[in-house]
Specification:
InterPro entries: CheY-like_superfamily, OmpR/PhoB-type_DNA-bd, Sig_transdc_resp-reg_receiver, WalR-like, WH-like_DNA-bd_sf. Keywords: DNA-binding, Phosphoprotein, Transcription, Transcription regulation, Two-component regulatory system. It comes from Anaeromicropila herbilytica. The longest helix has 15 residues. It contains eight helices and twelve strands. The strands form three sheets. It has a five-stranded parallel beta sheet, with helices on both faces. It starts with a strand and ends in a 5-residue tail after the last strand. It is elongated. By secondary structure, it is an alpha/beta fold. Helix 6 crosses helix 7 and helix 6 crosses helix 8. It has two domains: 115 residues, Response regulator (Rossmann fold, 3-Layer(aba) Sandwich); 92 residues, Winged helix-like DNA-binding domain superfamily/Winged helix DNA-binding domain (Arc Repressor Mutant, subunit A), CATH 1.10.10.10.
Length: 220
């Protein structure tokens, strides 16, 4: 999880991003123009910035040099969807370029990719007597290692990285299995049952009726 600055002059979009990132465990700050963004990065540490391009005053393309000087990786979020703009954003040094409107799950996954690449994600997840070390792929319960299959572990990590979000079985297959699957999704149900039993997580791996599953973690 990371501390993320959201720079977007559309408050409704910014607030929605804050809500979703907070749900999965990130902390956030908001800025609504270039001047405010520069003030934030001068006084506070950030692991990542989600940066709109069309901002009042100094735009996102002009701001990226300031973020690079502060070693803050940038993901552009923009309605500017031309190939020229996307190429320009990446050539200027952005880690990624996401076109509005976007799916929340896609945004969260791309954020996780950048944080892992930058070595700025938090690799330890704990809940009561269970510790998951995502760097070592190690799961402990009451200080004893729990043996998970590779697929069980992938599903567990997918749910942790998207905690408090309801995910369909198809989304879990795509994230944890690495492919889109249009047939039988019962394999997800079977692996969820095994995780609940092995970890004692019947209370937090919730079934979302006629939809999928959610790892419901109390936010501190």
């Amino acid at each position: 999880m990371g501390h993320i600055l959201i720079v977007d002059d559309e408050k409704s979009i910014s607030d929605l991003i804050v809500m979703n990132l907070t749900m999965v465990g990130h902390t956030t700050e908001q800025a609504f123009d270039g001047k405010e963004a520069l003030e934030k990065i001068r006084t506070e540490h950030f692991d990542l910035c989600l940066l709109d391009i069309m901002l009042p005053g100094k735009d996102g393309f002009e701001l990226i040099d300031d973020f690079k000087k502060s070693t803050i990786p940038v993901i552009y979020l923009s309605a500017k969807n031309s190939l020229t703009d996307r190429v320009k954003g990446l050539q200027l040094g952005a880690e990624d370029y996401i076109i509005k409107p976007f799916e929340t799950l896609e945004l969260i996954v791309r954020i996780d990719v950048v944080l892992r690449r930058e070595g700025k994600d938090k690799n330890i997840f704990t809940y009561n007597n269970v510790v998951v070390d995502m760097k070592k792929h190690l799961v402990l319960k009451n200080d004893k290692e729990i043996e998970l299959t590779a697929q069980e572990y992938s599903l567990l990590e997918a749910m942790i990285q998207n905690q408090n979000l309801a995910l369909t079985r198809e989304q879990l297959l795509s994230i944890a299995w690495g492919y889109d699957y249009s047939g039988e999704t019962r394999t997800v149900d079977m692996h969820i049952q095994r995780l609940r039993k092995k970890l004692g997580w019947e209370d937090i791996i919730k079934t979302v009726y006629k939809f999928g599953y959610r790892l419901e973690v109390p936010r501190t």
